[in-house]
Every structure is written in C-alpha cells, then in structure tokens.
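Dear colleague,

Following up on Tuesday's group meeting, I ran the structure prediction for the four-component complex that the binding team flagged. I've pasted the input sequences exactly as they went in, so you can double-check that nothing got truncated or mislabelled along the way. The structure tokens for the whole assembly follow below. Feel free to forward this to whoever is handling the docking comparison.

Inputs:
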Amino acid sequence: MQETELVNTTRRWGTGRKKVEMKKIESKSSLIVTFCKRRNGLFKKASEFCNLYDDANLAIIVLSPNQRPYSFGHPDVNTVVDQYLGDQESSERNNISCSEDTRGKNNMDCDNINEEGEGCWWERSVEDMNLEELEKFRASLETLKNNVAMRVREERRTRVSTRDFLGGFS
Amino acid sequence: MQETELVNTTRRWGTGRKKVEMKKIESKSSLIVTFCKRRNGLFKKASEFCNLYDDANLAIIVLSPNQRPYSFGHPDVNTVVDQYLGDQESSERNNISCSEDTRGKNNMDCDNINEEGEGCWWERSVEDMNLEELEKFRASLETLKNNVAMRVREERRTRVSTRDFLGGFS
DNA sequence: CCCTATCCATAATT
DNA sequence: AATTATGGATAGGG
C-alpha cells in the first residue's frame, strides 16, 4: 500500500488545509458552523453525482443538531425514498398495515442475536477489525440489509399473500 | 488482507485527474466505475459528517445505473426516513426495499470477517432461509449494524485500538 | 457484463 | 502548501 505517516502536528504556519479531525465538535456554535459547511459540501457532491447520468436517483436527508431537517433529492426525495421503500403507488400510503411498529428506533433487542446466534460469529469478528474495516463492514451491512429486504419482498410476492404471517416478528 | 502487487512491468501512468468535466459520462463502463467511486466518496463524507455529533441523523439512498440500491444511514436509514416523513405508521413498508431481483450476494468481503468458518455464514444462510427466518435475520442485521456503528463511533472518539468492546455493549 | 479495488497523477479544496 | 477527491487504466471477482 502506501504509507500515510505524514504526521506533523507541529505545522502551524499553515494557510494550508488542516488534517481532518474526525472527532466531535466541542462547542455548539462550532458545531453549527461545521454542520452547515459539511452539509453544503455533501449536497454539492450529491449534486455533481446526479449530473453523471440522466436517470440518477439520489436522496439525502439530514437533521441538524437542532433537529431541523435538510434534504437533497434527485429527481426528488420522495421519489427516491418511495423507490427505496418499494412503494410504487405512494400517493396514498397507509393502505395495508401490520399495525405493529417493530423496528423501534435503534433499540431492537439484542437478545435477538445474542440468544439465537450460537457462538456469536459477529462478536468475534468485529472485535478484530480496525477502524477502516469497521467502516466498510458497516457499509456492507447496509447493503446486505437491502439485499435481504429485497429477498424478503420477492419471497412475499411469490407466495400466497399472507401478511399476518409477518405480523408478529420482531 | 490483500496482496499488494509490486510487480509491474508496463506501468501505464495515469493521466491524472481530468478537468472538472461534469458532464454525462459517455461510456457505460466509465459511468459504473465513476458511480462506484463517487458513491464511496459520498458515503465517506457522510460517515465523517455523522461523527460531528452524537445524535446525528443522516440517510442517503442512491440507485446505481442499474437500479441497484445503495444506502448509508445513521443511525439507520429507516429511522431517518421515518422522521423525515413523520410517518409513524410505516411499519408495513419500512423494511422492504427496492424492486430489482439482485437476490443473494452482497458486497461484503467476508474473508476479512470470518476466516475460520467453512463457507460464509451469510452466503450460506440467506439463500436457504425461508421468509420467517429472513425476517429474523433482517432484524438481527439491523441490530448488528447499530452495534457496529456504535463501535465505529466509539473507536473514533477514543482513538484507541480495538478493545474489548462488545462484551459490554448495551 | 456489473461491480469493486488499486495505482498514479492531478484537479479541487481548505 | 498540505490533503483530499477523483479520472483513467487496470485487475479481479462473480
């Protein structure tokens, strides 16, 4: 590979760009400013991204530190989200309903895995990953989840429509 | 991890980054490669973004030129989307995504993760799982992703090498 | 084909 | 000027 040992913290005459400091912003005001900058940077990237090809579909949703929502969408946030959610006729949502919010805001019980995952393969593996690997792993999981969801959806279509079937999972 | 090929007889030197020609990509193959790169760049930005503060909420959804879905989410795509939509009754749709049949493989380099296992857990299982198992698996992935995300943030914060983390999570 | 990773050089950004 | 992001070419996996 290439060594990235360009550690020189003593550099301070700099008009130059500072090395990325990936840590939490201390003061709230700094956070706000940084948030705006980074958000703009991100949206700009996204904008360029969408110019790469015609039928690009991209959406970004972000909440500010004060919970104010900002979004970028091409051609439109809702369009992309709907596609992602697989809801083709999103005009009127709220048709079918399992009437059970099982996803929970990231507080899904770990027992799900801890008790059923014999040996806890993931526990062992994750421990040995470095930061970079973790980042990739995290992204991979997102994709994996998408694929599984896809699979589920297809499976569901193929079979007799039994949505009660899923009613109680968690 | 991966061997760095130092062997190179005919080193064809890259022409370097071209001028910022933000036009439609001509060839499909170029588009695909560029898509991949820019997506990684975008997700990386997003990743950094999320480390600015703890309760960051950010989601990105993008479809590849071939309509394959990719997403980045912190803490989770659906969480952010739900907040954005303010739709609390989306449980029926919240986990289902995309319409194309790309069943099966994900992009995870599992060699990094499960070296000792004979056959990759995910490859082995997802194909053979029934709907019920898939749903559980999906839920597990959700949890796992959150855990990894947590781990990543923790790592970033402390800048300490892999420590015994998972033993005491949640 | 579709997708990802890597190398090199350089444009873009701070 | 230091650092990052990315285009082009290329290799490899599926």
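Confidence is low (pLDDT under 50) at residues 1-12, 87-120, 160-170 of chain A.

Cheers,
M.
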